[in-house]
Amino acid sequence: MAKINLRPWREELRAEKQKQFVVMILGAVIIAGGLAFLWKSDMDSRIAYQQSRNAYIETATKELDKQIKEIENLKRQRDELLARMQVIQDLQGKRPVIVRVFDELVRTLPDGLYYTDLKKTGERLDIVGMAESNSRISNLMRQFEDSEWFANPNLTNVAAADSARSGYSQFNLSVQQRTPEPEGEDN
């Protein structure tokens, strides 16, 4: 006799395949959910790490800004101190100049002539004096020309003096002051 299988094997096979399909779908969903969770956790940790790095950079930038301000303040103070030191050095260097100018004024002064008024304006020295003769004034001007401390003497006025000093002439003279180069220095 022939064996006939009347059981619904096709439906069972279909049901079995459908179960396997559902299990595979559930497995794929669980694996996809796990991978999504791992990916999200990784992204969250990377974002947190980057935010911590950004915060560190911001604090380091603020510190560097403070240090830059301190450095600028120190540079400004240094420049101010250097400027003060330069002024002091200039004053120290010019201190003996006025002494040398007065010494040179005495050295260039010929006999029969004296000064009554001296006025310094910048590098120009205005002199008012009395002289026995015009030749003594000329001699004074030549000595100013030969001096290393004075240059360009300019006689502006010669007039006869009042009766108290008969024979004397009053003169007005201006001369430029110059500072000679120190000996032994090469430029």
From TrEMBL:
Residues 57-91 form a coiled coil. Keywords: Coiled coil, Membrane, Transmembrane, Transmembrane helix. It comes from the Bacteria. It holds the Pfam family PilN. The keyword Transcription does not apply. The chain crosses the membrane at residues 21-39. One of its GO terms (biological process) is type IV pilus assembly. Signal peptide: none annotated. The keyword Membrane applies. PANTHER family: DNA UTILIZATION PROTEIN HOFN, TYPE IV PILUS INNER MEMBRANE COMPONENT PILN. This is Type IV pilus assembly protein PilN.
